[in-house]
Amino acid sequence: MAPPSVMARILSVLMPLAILLSPAAADRDYHEQLDLKPLAGSSLLASFNFRSNTSLTDFDAHNYRYFPRSLGQLLQHVGTRELHLRFALGRWDAESWGARPWHGTKEGGTGVELWAWLDAQTEEEADHKWLTLTNALSGLFCASLNFIDETRTTRPVMSFQPEGDHSPEAMQNMHLLHGVLPREIVCTENLTPFLKLLPCKGKAGVSSLLSGHKMFDASWQSMAIDVRPICPAGQECVLQVEQTIDMVLDIERSKRPTVNPIPRPPPAHEMRCNASKPYNSGDACFPAPVDQGIEWSLHQVFGKSIQGTCPLTDPEVPPVCIEVPDRRSIFMTMGGAREVKQNGLQKRCYFFPSEGAFSLVLPALPYEGPDAMTPADEIVQPETPLLYAERTFTGYGQERGGVQTILTNPSPDSSVEFVYMQTLPWFMRIYLHTLEARINGQPGIRNDIVEEIYYRPALDRIRATQLELRMRIPPASTVFLTYDFEKTILRYTEYPPDANRGFDIASGIITILPSSAPGSRTSNLRTTSLMLSLPTPDFSMPYNVIIFTSTAIALAFGGLYNILVRRFVGADEAGEAALGGLKGKIAGLVGKLREKIKGLKAASAAADAKGKAD
Ligand SMILES: *[C@@H]1O[C@H](CO)[C@@H](O)[C@H](O)[C@H]1NC(C)=O
Ligand SMILES: *[C@@H]1O[C@H](CO)[C@@H](O)[C@H](O)[C@H]1NC(C)=O
């Protein structure tokens, strides 16, 4: 592989040429941007966004332009109108980090999540196309998407709406299918195919910062691919493909030297303690929170610098933006770079030359002296989310359990309306009559909280439970939503190899409906996935039996064989035989035979002599 800088240079020469050769190409058809935002507690949110437009007439004529060919051919083959694919890891800490990036619309549940609108006349045709789609995507993204079978596929009724523009005729034949794999571990092998879909392939532009080492070390991480048709009024329809990567990196952890990849606790003299705790002493330390004023730079946090710009992007749009208070200084590592202030926002954006490595450095804040910083200068305060959600298991034992979801509306004056969808595997049998919504401690299901329920019960080994609730929570209230379920005993072969680890239950999906306030839009959030432990047979039993019988046989056979084959010889003979290995042994045996024969002869001669004498 060519080094990135050479690659970037080749790309920067070839790509403008390609654009010149196709006069239809507008220079606004590809967009990429990196938004950085420090969060509370030494965290840094990095949002990468890559977007491209391809006109639908070009696409239908198999002229893919910026659209990734492999994906384009697949989507055409299975008649996909809209596609959304998510890979996610970790947990978004809403209490300290605030509202989610992109209003949660680019986020997925833990593992892999896929939903698509397929063009089909009947449900069977849609199922068939879905199967083809999941199998092909599985190959394309090196993920086990082919495990999304009918037991993991649902058809959401209230939760998802198409994002693109579709004609009313097209809408009639569109089928929405949704599948989740909460168990899938997202890793580098999923990032590589993701980068391959980009026009600059991660060799130039902001995507050159992405590497598996830092990305999968993040506290929270989500990769998204969205394909949707957009028809602006009075213009030709375009097919937009948007790729997004969001991650929350730990600045402190990313500074760890590469020669020391294992996170070890710091030595005692380097620990920063909260000295105001009553028990603080030489051997008792309560760690003080890491403050935001620490120094960091792009190349430290990502492990590399940006390798020039991607030549396809609009030169008028700055590729990197940082959201920090104005008093914090930012330095650029390369001459020729330019800073632009975003009007009215605490946000600064950067242009940089098309070649060479580029990085940004944020020095540590001075805490003493005339221009000392206050905590308010450290980070831009995050937005409060519209809703907090938290889901846990309750109960104990191997037979029954319960699920509790705590939903909190932090707003002091407006209520929040949303759809809460849960897909539960068939082996978790829920009792719908136990569904209860308690508000601020008052029991009983209340119609003013749960407005509508859509429930599709599970069928054993055929389909999952689908539960969608439309709810409204009044201002400054907390709702406890609970229900009970029964655990099933699976068949012996249905347990995974690591049966005692438990079974992953997919995240609950919350779609917050737009309120009447102007500018309000749909936003999403997802709870964490759950780990359900089912009654598990003792899989070690067969092994114990096998090991025990094997030992018994080995002992019996060994002893018997030994008795049958072993010969007892005199010490003087053994010494001779031991001398020459196998040869010696054979010689010894031959010698022994000879002696025996001689002995026999002598004996018979003696007998003869005796007989004659008689
Ligand atoms: C693509 O098309 C949409 C709709 O016309 C437009 O808003 C957007 O700026 C275009 N370009 C990119 C790169 O998304
Ligand atoms: C240290 O502990 C005290 C007492 O619990 C607390 O009030 C204070 O906020 C803590 N300091 C820091 C920097 O967290």
From TrEMBL:
One of its GO terms (biological process) is attachment of GPI anchor to protein. It comes from the Eukaryota. The keyword Protease does not apply. InterPro entries: PIG-T (IPR007245). Residues 1-26 form the signal peptide. The chain crosses the membrane at residues 541-564. Keywords: Membrane, Signal, Transmembrane, Transmembrane helix. The keyword Manganese does not apply. GO terms for cellular component: GPI-anchor transamidase complex. This is GPI transamidase component.
